[in-house]
Write a structure and sequence with these properties.
By secondary structure, the chain is an alpha/beta fold. It contains 18 helices and 13 strands. Strands 1, 2, 3, 4, 5, 6, 7, 8, 9, 10, 11, 12 and 13 form a 13-stranded mixed sheet that branches. About 40% of the residues are buried. The model has no long low-confidence stretch (mean pLDDT about 90).
Length: about 525
Amino acid sequence: MLSEGKVWMGLTDEGERANLLPSMANRHGLIAGATGTGKTITLKVMAEAFSDLGVPVFMADVKGDLAGTAFPGKESEDMNARIARFGLGDAGFSYTGYPATYYDLFGKNGIQLRTTITEMGPSLLARILDLNNLQTDLLSVVFKIADDNELLLVDTKDLKAMLNYVGENNREFADAYGNIAKNSIGAILRAVVALESEGGDVFFGEPALKITDWIAQGEGGKGMISILDSQSLINNGRLYSTFLLWMLSELFETLPEVGDLSKPKLVFFFDEAHLLFKGTSKGLIDKIEQVVKLVRSKGVGVYFVTQNPRDIPDNVLAQLGNKVQHALHAYTPAEQKAVRAAAQAFRENPAFKTYDAILELGTGEAIVSFLNEGGIPSTAQRVSILPPQSRMGSITDSEREDIVMGSILYSKYAVSEDPDSAYEFLLRREIELEKQAQAELEAKEREKADALAAKEKEKAEAAAAREKAKADAAAAKAAKQVGSTVAGTVGREVGKTFGGKFGTFGKTLGGNLGASLGRGLLNTLFNRKS
């Protein structure tokens, strides 16, 4: 509720109102306490008051009991007793619902939320994929190659196509980008496939979330409350925390500098905040610290909701000016140390010992310290938190559907798109290379066939020439034999006639000599030896 333009959170033991100043709300805050001590009630009361101020709110619904914010609360004996206890009837308390929109990374329980691989970036994506340092560096190289070649990485199939492309052409990229090990590429690919099996293929895509859509007001000028259904998402702590960290980074990069405002532009509640820092590298924690520190100047307030303040790194915890500490248990020395550390985060109140008070708090009670006008934390106050005006607990499927379908953003994000990106480009490239390779193969086959045909032709011509030469030789031999016979016969007859003049001996000698001369003359004509 609001009290004189301030966020009224509850009553102190002295009956005074504990108020959070809107002008100090962007100095961030912490809501901590053991399970069942009232953290969710505190979150709802604070979110409702910000909405009444016209400040948009984002909160993650881990257990499903924040969805009722869109519907009025219900009267009960307990609520009537609390209303009377706080004197809320005179303060204008009424059961009311707040303008709310439901979102879901998987599109089942709210408007589909998506982002692209490129917008997530290699550092946060490596966190989701649980990559080691070497694989993280290699993923950054793959992003750089994609950027240098103007290839858009929209969804997981784009990333897989890019990883395969870089792996298959690692030698080509080695000179410009360093050694790229195929086995590391394979490890990243396996991690991407595992992410797809957990719903990552649905989360990455277009149209991507436009973060400024959340900075809106609903009916009556109340700030719109955006509720991320995280009941299934919380099972994948890396995806949950990385998405919320990405969202903070997007807010920081998108929103302009505004300095100190009379009230925030947006308030962000990060439930189960310990998941953000669990297993996080020092470099990423430094990034979180930087974003939390600088996003304040963009008019954004960040409130971490967790069981124990020790879940938050000291450098981040030091930036959380507004604190609400619910009860903690201390059954072991380690738990006692944790309670002591939580108590030391408050300015001591002489009226009570903070350490003891934290152990004694009942459900719905908290130790509270808010920043005053000068930005100085107030002394610790023991406060009973107000009841929320909206419904506590879950809602029906039909109620959820009505809210989702009634949102003006539903049509904007309902239908997924598959733009021309790295996958399509590399697929076309592969097809073109296959066509080129096929054309080269066909050209080689034609060249081979032409060479074989030429060789066969040459062999046929050679065989024909040999046959012709053989036939010519046979014909020449036959002609020679005939000529020799004829020449011999003619020469013999001439020799006989001539030698006959010298008697029988001369006739015989003349015949033989004539035949020999005839054959010799023929051989001379055929250019052959006798």
